[in-house]
Design goal:
214 residues; alpha/beta; 2-enoyl-CoA Hydratase, Chain A, domain 1; 4-stranded parallel β-sheet; 6 helices
Length: 214
């Protein structure tokens, strides 16, 4: 996902529906290099993954706080991994922070940018635009990520060589040649197909149950 444009929520909804028709077992949401965009787009997309809970809190210059919530209309409850890096900012961090705080997704990659500002863009008469900061935002747990960013659950640094290879050949992105994506697949696989108990572990559990029973 490259940005949070006015069409981002519509595109995300369509992508989730298309993949669910293919009966996928889980999702990887790639926000690497996504600089953000519209606050409302990040809220709408978060609601597609979360049924309940706060998504983000904003505080304006007068100290007024607004908490934006999920609305019980999540499109899927399948396991999710989110990929981020140092260029994931703003709306990317709002979405990532909400999913991480509610343990809805495993966040994988490197520290995000750390832009916790909500800005309004005003068009000027010469066609240029003026971005004005109107609020500061916090993750559902009240964390201020300004200039610090979000720390992934699983930190995977890529070498300069690996980064250059992906830049030269974008088709390698989201393949096993992409270390962060490969880590996401491995993480989801463990969640979807947990390791079964060994026979002796099952026996021990049964024995414990008998001992505990009256």
């Amino acid at each position: 996902m490259s940005d949070f444009s006015s069409h981002a929520a519509e595109q995300m909804e369509r992508s989730i529906a298309d993949l669910q028709e293919q009966q996928v077992d889980g999702f990887v949401l790639d926000l690497r290099g996504n600089p953000g965009g519209l606050l409302q787009a990040s809220i709408e997309i978060a609601r597609m993954w979360m049924d309940t809970g706060a998504i983000v809190s904003t505080i304006d210059r007068d100290g007024n706080r607004e908490a934006l919530q999920a609305n019980g209309k999540a499109l899927t409850k399948l396991p999710l991994a989110v990929l981020v890096n140092g260029n994931s900012a703003s709306s990317s961090e709002i979405l990532t922070g909400a999913l991480q705080d509610h343990k809805r997704a495993q966040v994988i990659g490197t520290q995000t940018f750390g832009k916790a500002l909500v800005q309004a863009v005003h068009t000027l008469s010469d066609g240029s635009g003026l971005a004005v900061t109107v609020a500061h935002y916090y993750t559902p747990k009240g964390t201020d990520i300004s200039q610090t960013g979000i720390t992934p659950d699983i930190e995977i640094e890529m070498t300069d060589k690996q980064l250059r290879r992906l830049l030269r050949n974008p088709k390698l992105r989201a393949t096993q040649q992409d270390p962060q994506y490969a880590s996401a697949i491995a993480t989801l696989t463990v969640e979807i197909y947990p390791k079964p108990l060994a026979i002796n572990e099952s026996i021990n559990d049964e024995e414990k149950s008998r001992v505990a029973a009256p």
